[in-house]
């Protein structure tokens, strides 16, 4: 099939439906584990029971996992010869249809007037990142990023004197624990922490968000970063903030760290927080075959 003939509007609609209504198995597994670690009857335990019921209901009824269906972010990997314009139009069609079918809440409002566009499209909405690759196949990665957890993201410029944070991994650890402590329950935890070290103010946040696409049980190929991920996870869960801020042992479900080169004058640490409704999904297309994960 020629690139121009491909029509992925139906599979893309299904990707949006799945991502909005079915939480990834690795996220569900960590929430289930967390529910077993909180004392039965505690507020944190009850919050997790409600979350688990919510996950089941959403999946069974094909309804959004949360009323805030989030900022829509697509990363598209494509081989040479495909039109980004054509792929963008098909994605926009799928998003509009998904909104009409109530898989998505109309969530795009004009930044100045507050007027809702009604179909989840608008200036920079959804967000698209296109990546040309060598493989003869397409992959669409979708993230629906909630607003509440987006509000508690943070960026630090090191050194940070009040926190005693220098330009090293110990400094990174200190500022991230500070950001998690400041977030308290406002990010709808237990959350997932994506961290970008380096870059500039824009690319640092982008790296932090890319970390949120990783599976929760993967292991960072950089041993130093892998050790830091584990340490921050352990120490964050000793803060006692707990699910939804009700107190308890599970404040954070995973910590994922990446880095970009930086200029000598800058050392940014950017943190993106994903709520328990960590909605991400992928569509693969190869030789006319569609698969999802
Ligand atoms: S932060 Fe997440 S769980 Fe909380 S309201 Fe927003 S999308 Fe829903």
Q: How would the global form be characterised?
A: globular
* Computed CA radius of gyration, to the nearest angstrom: 19 Å
The helical percent reads: 25-40%
Number of domains: 2
Unreliable stretches (pLDDT < 50, length at least 5) are none
Mean pLDDT: 97
First-last Cα distance: 24 Å
Strand order of the largest sheet: 2-1-3-8-9
Strand content: 15-25%
Bound molecules: iron/sulfur cluster
Describe this protein's structure.
By secondary structure, this protein is of the alpha+beta class. It has 2 domains: 3-20 and 65-146 and 279-292, 60s Ribosomal Protein L30, Chain: A (2-Layer Sandwich); 148-274, no CATH class. Helix content is 37%, strand content 21%. The protein has 8 helices and 9 strands. Helix 1 packs across helix 4. The mean pLDDT is 97. The site of iron/sulfur cluster has 10 residues, from helix 5. Residues 66, 68, 70, 146-149, 188, 275, 277 line the site of iron/sulfur cluster (SF4).
Brief summary:
This protein is α+β, with helices and mostly antiparallel strands and 293 residues long.
Topology:
Elements: H1 9-21, H2 25-37, H3 43-61, E1 71-78, H4 84-100, E2 127-132, E3 138-145, H5 147-151, E4 154-157, H6 169-183, E5 191-198, H7 201-211, H8 223-236, E6 252-260, E7 268-274, E8 279-286, E9 289-292
Parallel strand pairs: 1-2, 5-6
Antiparallel strand pairs: 1-3, 3-8, 4-7, 5-7, 8-9
Helix pairs in contact: 1-4, 2-3, 6-8
This protein binds iron/sulfur cluster.
């Amino acid at each position: 099939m020629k690139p121009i003939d491909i029509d992925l509007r139906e599979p893309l609609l299904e990707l949006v439906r799945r991502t909005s209504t079915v939480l990834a198995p690795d996220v569900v597994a960590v929430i289930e584990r967390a529910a077993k670690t909180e004392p039965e009857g505690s507020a944190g335990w009850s919050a997790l029971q409600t979350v688990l019921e919510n996950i089941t209901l959403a999946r069974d009824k094909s309804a959004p996992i949360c009323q805030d269906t989030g900022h829509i972010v697509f990363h598209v990997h494509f081989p040479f010869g495909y039109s980004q314009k054509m792929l963008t139009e098909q994605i926009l069609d799928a998003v509009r249809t998904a909104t009409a079918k109530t898989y998505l809440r109309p969530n795009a409002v004009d930044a100045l007037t507050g007027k809702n566009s009604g179909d989840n499209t608008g200036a920079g909405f959804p967000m698209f990142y296109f990546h040309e690759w060598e493989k003869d196949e397409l992959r669409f990665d979708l993230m629906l990023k909630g607003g509440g957890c987006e509000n508690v993201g943070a960026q630090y410029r090191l050194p940070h004197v009040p926190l005693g944070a220098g330009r090293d991994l110990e400094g990174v650890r200190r500022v991230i624990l500070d950001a998690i402590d400041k977030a308290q329950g406002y990010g709808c935890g237990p959350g997932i922490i994506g961290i970008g070290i380096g870059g500039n103010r824009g690319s640092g946040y982008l790296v932090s968000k890319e970390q949120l696409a990783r599976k929760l049980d993967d292991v960072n190929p950089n041993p130093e970063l892998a050790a830091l991920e584990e340490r921050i996870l352990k120490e964050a869960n000793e803060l006692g903030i707990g699910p939804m801020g009700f107190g308890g042992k599970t404040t954070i479900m995973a910590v994922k760290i990446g880095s970009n080169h930086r200029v000598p004058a800058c050392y940014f640490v950017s943190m993106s927080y994903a709520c328990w409704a960590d909605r991400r999904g992928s569509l693969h297309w190869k030789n006319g075959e569609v698969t999802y994960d």
